[in-house]
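Can't attach files on this board, so I'm pasting raw text. These are the components:
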Amino acid sequence: MYVQLDQSEPKDFCSSPLPGNPLLCRRALPGEGAERSCAFDGARVVLMPVTDAAHLIHGPIACAGNSWDNRGALSTGSQLYRRGFTTDLGENDVVYGGEEKLYQAILEISAKHRPQAIFVYSTCVSALIGDDIAGVCARARKKVSVPVIPVDAPGFLGDKNIGNRIAGETLWQHVIGSRNAGAPKIPRSINLIGEYNIAGDLGGILPDLTKLGIKLQTAITGDARYTDLTQAHRAALNVLVCSKSLTNLACSLEQQWQTPYIEASFYGIEDTSRALRNIARGLADRGLSGWTEEYILRQERETRQAIAPYRERLQGKSAVLFTGGVKTWSMVSALTELGITILAGGTQNSTPADFERMKARLDPAARIIEDTSAAGFLTLIREKKPDLLVAGGKIKYLAHKMRLPFLDINHGRKRPYAGYPGMITLAEAIARTVFSPVWDLTRRPYPPARGGEGGNEDV
Amino acid sequence: MSIPAPLTADWLKTEEYRELNFARRDLVINPAKACQPLGALVCALGFDGCLPFIHGSQGCAAYFRNSLSRHYREPISAVSDSMTEDAAVFGGQNNLIEGLRNAHTLYKPKMMAIFTTCMAEVIGDDIKAYLENARKQNALPEDFPVALAHTPSFKGSHITGYDNMLKGFLETLAEPRRHSTHLRLYVVPGFDPYPANLREYKRLLNYLGVTYTLMPDYSDVVDAPNTGEFKMFPGGTPFSALREALNASGYLFLQTYSTQASLKFVKNVQKIPTEAVPIPLGIRNTDRFLTTVADMTGRRIPAEITAERGRALDAATDAHPYLHGKRFALFGDPDILLGLTSFLLEMGGVPVHILSSNGSQAFAKEMEDLLHASPYGREGKVYVGKDLWHLRSLLLSEPVDMLLGDSHGKYAARDAGIPLVRVGFPVTDRVNVHRYPIVGYAGVINLISLIANTFLEDKDRNADEAHFELLR
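---
Top answer:
Structure tokens for the assembled complex are below.
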């Protein structure tokens, strides 16, 4: 079900033919579950936070009906990105093709909703019936005043990761550098690649950057304006926050625009400090490095002070961690900083590098979750009996059924955990579930010894 | 369009735009419907030990589980056979066979329900033949019960999928009808997002002393008690009842638009005595439900139910000034809209805009007849095949006092500055809504309270000091 870290190398379990798939986590087997989303969803996740763009889904109701406004990527400006545009393909479209409908839909959006750009997503159906999305986008572009960008990531291509990567390629090909291509780099400016501003995470990072004199050109993509994205090539440094499958984007940008990149995480005190330090170093600015160190010292001290009361109470609690991307490893540090021991860690959507990093940070006695199905999960939880489960929303109610305190760490969460202030919010959120009196309530034996026949409940 | 970009947001609220908006043809904005396989999944959850098996792309399955989990706040079990590009070329037979084998071994269900996503439908997978081959290859025991349904998302909506799956269960797993049938009434709830509604039906039927089977019944699956253990199959209509389903003494359907094909199958093909009533929402519809059950079974309505009805009437008389004359907009699935409208009309509420993304012309006609039969229904207009962006135009150009519908309506309600009372599927931003029945006499009291108290809450929140009163 799961393996001891020291007993085997992850690659032994990995026979996936697809590059970029997480180690230990082979492709979903038919019939083993329904945990993983698709390439279409992966592309949506990366591009949807372009907030002043319209996102048009060329497919049947399934794809848009289930996904419009379903993520917590917040915007401080335009709310247009949350509007659920779809061609809602019907039976006739499947038979006769949906290209004309798509063309008209693009014109309608451009005329009435005034987006800065229109992203057009293909789906399983549009791809299988052979609609030429790129062709329609090119044709429509001649009629409308804004860029019309095809995103060719139909769901059947595979996992979310593949869609993430395709979205990155789309941005590289069609968006970044499409304006002011020859303009010089902006001094002390960065892009945050793979930062989606879930629950307003950027709010925990931006003030630090501003105080240090670093300009955020854009997050790719989180709370993003299209115009800022078109000039993302002018940033002096790319900071890869969620490495997942956007690493390819960082590499492409380095090759084409000579923008160096570093990897970083803003979850937890140490990682946030390391991120700021490395950004200063990456910008090759001695002055900046100097005052960054001072700033970090002060922030760390203040944050540690703020979380001390939580740490005192959480010391010695144990957790199982199951997430994806950068959180795979950065949550290990964040939880450790709160005094929490991690009994087991696992991931479905991470790169080999993310996985290796998690492994390096985990206690050698910790388990690696290999069986990521519901069945495997239940066995793990029964055996380990952690005080806390940190995972994505899909597992939340399973945890509640098991009377296990749960922290949603993925896109369904409503609170920002990034940066120094995010660490305090995280501590508070963990305490709120771990110390809830509701768990004691659930464990009261019932029926009471003197009671009647109320059925025997396992406690 | 000559509107300057910064003014677009305001312009989208105008009468002028409303006209253009309703002329919109090729684009749907903020759809208020889900797809067939989601409905099929909900149906399949209602059979005991049944594992929903999604033949098609894995992303769809993940979406369904997410959507349902967010509404019910419950783990939702389902598997997919994860078809990918190679399956698009060669067909999904290998995925289906391997998937059945794995799912059967891993989760040990008592039965499975196979239904399809668009992908399998576009490439034309023959799931019936695939299933036979799966049995030949010993992926499943020879007699293991499996129901089949084709549920392409490019046709109909979640209510169509629910219906197709239910018909699939009856066609594939129920034994042929014999001459001598048993005295058991089969009650079909239809696509109902409230487990509490299903419990309410059972409570009333138990009071009546009827021998019945509620089918499908997912109330114990999506509203399971917290015992400290996760049970993958915590309940539902048992296989034995499904097997005997065509030997029913009669069928009673509590919704018609979400059960059309199944209703036709039992009534016209199987020739089983069948009645269909509107969803028992409101006093009149509940009366009709109970009298129909009494007529079909020869039981009498007991005093307890009569007393309950009296209490609901008392709640209605006490609260009537808060609802009488108020103007409402409603959106959602056809059956629930018919029930809500009937309820509003009997309380003197004025339904103004009634919008159903997945409503048919037949539904529009039935709704119009219902509206015309009441003096409070004269202003009501029915919109079928329209989306929530149309609804927004309606709310902004012809204001109402309240919107009734699922959580997706919150944006339009906010833009119009009116409260949204959450009714329907999905409700993802309030807790426990699905745990309060809106059907039966108990449902009448719950609905009145929800609506009247929302108005009163608004009044308190917006009152100046002089009008902030203890008595409302």
